[in-house]
């Protein structure tokens, strides 16, 4: 009877001190379908009221709307995070795949401590992917494999074939394979065994419940069944070659969202089932990923859950910057004790720049200068009169403007380095910029010794045949225009170049990597002792653009795409002040100005909404530093 079965379940829970799956064999005429559902619901309710108790380990429980979100092990081993990108039937061409791979490889090379990363491209791109990521630590896998190893099976690809290419992983049981191709647990099990029969080939088995199953409180029943049947016959010695991806099918394309707590509860259910199949010790080691529409905005909270060991990423894996941000998740442990202070900048000049850049304050002229880069325009403003463009069009894209000792300005153009005497109102060509592919001068500032430090920009870093190519350098020059390359590596987009008061440190960022580095900056010789001071959080869009130092040694960084400028302590990486640019998500650079250097001026880009010059009065006694002048002369 139902009551005797439930009593048996209760006795087993009490006597063994743990959850046990209750295997029931019921004759068709013993109970009605409705009774079976009631019995399952009752058993699930009973199971949900008891946490799994491992020997000599306490269990922490947190309430959930569906399941217990217990931490399965109080002292689980350190499982290395596994982030996988499933490209599905994308991108559409080999050229697009090459571009995506180049960007991804470049981004991963700059990561200080990346997780284990796997990408699953479509089958025709496997060889290309293997070659593109060679030396980066990124692994490549197949999205599916055949049930067969050889024979007359048109269109099929065997596990031995993908392994012989050099693939390290295979994906099995994805929800789309289960739904669109009617692949059940038995088929998934055969594919898992095919993979494990290949020396060194690892497998991710996908499990998850449908919306109907979820709403019937059958999550634990379904994922337990899928794990047990999918891993039937697997040797415990192969546990380290297996990962499980939990995909809540009901959270994909339904408008419903799984919370991190719901993900944790489901992962506990997966790990319980793993214990039944492989034993408790192996279940501790197997990594369980979450696969329900993971984004840069959701990854941090997901990875904070103790039983979430990574993510199976879909759409976001097709955008290199998004996937890289997911790979650089940071799972918070404790909230910051002191949240950053926040102020709001206001529009000072409605200049409608397409790409405002390189603001500097000249104390000699008591004037702010900046450029509108792609329009080739130079702007000035004394904070009182109407601003105006000194020369409407220079005929070249401008990267930076700097003040010259003795008066006048230095301009970095795509085609030439220019000198401008305002009195003559004519620009004089001083030199050609360094020749290195399709690049142009971008971010630049004068160092404290009066030399110009200029970084380059890969014009194709967003699109085109050279997408993702690291071909830009950081240069220093004086009056002789002998360009001295400062770094021993190339990059894509130079930004954040600035110097504190003593001039013995330089800050620098390659914007697509979203990381800012500090270097020791001696009076002579190249920068050295590179160290990471800050990485932009994954849930903030965009990347670090222009920057400036204040009198207290803090660095102010415009976060292009995130709609803010942040003040960072380079010693700790902590943010203590945020300046918002309301209505404009694209601040591009900043500097201090005004008679007392206590105002922050922020340039912006027009797309998607901006192009104005913003201004914020500094609180708390914060002031900037005088802008050095280039000592190169005429």
TrEMBL record:
Annotated a divalent metal cation binding sites: 357, 495, 545
UniProt GO cellular component terms: cytosol
Cofactor comment text: Binds 1 divalent metal cation per subunit.
Cofactor(s) named in the record: Zn(2+)
Source taxon at top rank: Eukaryota
Coiled coil: none
Protein name listed in UniProt: triose-phosphate isomerase
